[in-house]
Amino acid sequence: MTLYEFRCALRDVRDNRKQIKSILCSLKTIREDELSTIFSGAIDYSADKVQHQSDPDARIINAIARIDKDTERLLEKLDRLESNDQRFEKMIYEADGIGAEVVRLYVLEGLRWQDVAVQVGYSERYCQELYSRSTQTMWQKYEKSA
C-alpha cells in the first residue's frame, strides 16, 4: 500500500464514521416511521404480500416485517463498515503526540480543519502539516507490520 492509498483509506474511515452515525440515527427512527404508517390510512404496495388493508393486524404484521428487514440490512452494513475501520482506529489510538491527536480529531471525530485547529491550539496550516507527517509515520509503521 502506498502512502497515497493509506491516506485514502483514512479518508474512507472518516466517511465511514459519518455513514455509521447516519445508520445509527436511522435505526433509532425506523420503528417510529414504520409504525406511524399503520394508522395513516395509506396503502403500502411495497409489501411482499399486500393484504386486506382494513385489517389492522395485517398492517401491523406488514410493518413489523419491514422493520425487521430494514433493521437487518442496516445492521449488516454497520458491521461491514466497522470491521473495515477497526485496524485504522487502533493504529490512530495507539499513536501518541499532537500529530496523532490531529489525525484522531480529523479522521475519527470528523472535525473540519478549522475546528481541529481550535481544539489543539495551532493554525489550520500547521495542523495539516502535522496530519501529513503523522500519517506518513503511521503508514511506515503499517508497512513494517504488514
Which characteristics define this entry?
single chain, 146 residues, mainly alpha, 0% strand
What can you see in these coordinates?
By secondary structure, this protein is mainly α. The protein has one domain (3-145). It is built from 5 helices and no strands. The protein has helices spanning 3-38, 56-94, 98-108, 113-120, 124-145. Helix 3 (98-108) runs antiparallel to helix 4 (113-120), helix 3 packs across helix 5 and helix 4 (113-120) crosses helix 5 (124-145). The longest helix is centred in the middle third of the chain and has 39 residues, at 56-94. It is elongated. It starts with a helix and ends with a helix. The mean pLDDT is 83.
Shape: elongated
- List low-pLDDT spans: none
Summarize the helix and strand pattern as letters: HHHHH
Determine the oligomeric state from the structure.
single chain
Q: Tell me the Rg in angstroms.
A: 22 Å
Mean pLDDT: 83
Largest sheet, in brief, is: none
Number of continuous helical runs:
5
Could you tell me the number of beta strands? 0
Q: How much helicity do the residues have?
A: over 70%
What is the domain total for the residues? 1
Q: Name the structural class.
A: mainly alpha
Between the first and last Cα atoms, what is the distance in angstroms?
Answer: 9 Å
Report the β-strand fraction as a percent range: under 5%
